[in-house]
């Protein structure tokens, strides 16, 4: 999973979704629910490694400006933890909190990989 630390990184990640699906994970290092979501995301990224899907990580506390820019650029209200699937520069699916589960993400990502 690629870390996104700047608005330029975020813009490049979004632009990449015109070439292949992209999954953006917004994670809080201070939240136990987000810690569980991070474990689920580790499983998902391992399963889809080498497939044509990009995975990006925004740490919402450490890189708050980037997290807020994601909300503005993608038009999805900020939540944390949050996962968004991007295609052609737009969010086509998103979930947050306890909805971030490996099985659920696998069912969404398998058809697009």
Automatic annotation (TrEMBL):
InterPro entries: BrxC, Thioredoxin-like_sf. Gene3D superfamilies: Glutaredoxin. It holds the Pfam family BrxC. This is Bacillithiol system protein YtxJ. It comes from Paenibacillus aquistagni.
């Amino acid at each position: 999973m690629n870390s996104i630390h700047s608005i330029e990184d975020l813009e490049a990640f979004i632009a990449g979704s015109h070439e292949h699906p992209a999954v953006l994970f917004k994670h809080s290092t201070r939240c136990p629910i987000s810690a569980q979501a991070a474990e689920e995301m580790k499983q998902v990224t391992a399963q889809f490694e080498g497939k044509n899907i990009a995975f990006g990580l925004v740490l919402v506390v450490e890189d708050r400006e980037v997290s807020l820019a994601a909300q503005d650029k993608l038009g999805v209200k900020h939540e944390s933890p949050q996962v968004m699937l991007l295609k052609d520069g737009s969010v086509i699916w998103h979930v947050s909190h306890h909805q971030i589960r490996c099985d659920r993400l696998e069912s969404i990502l398998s058809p697009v990989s």
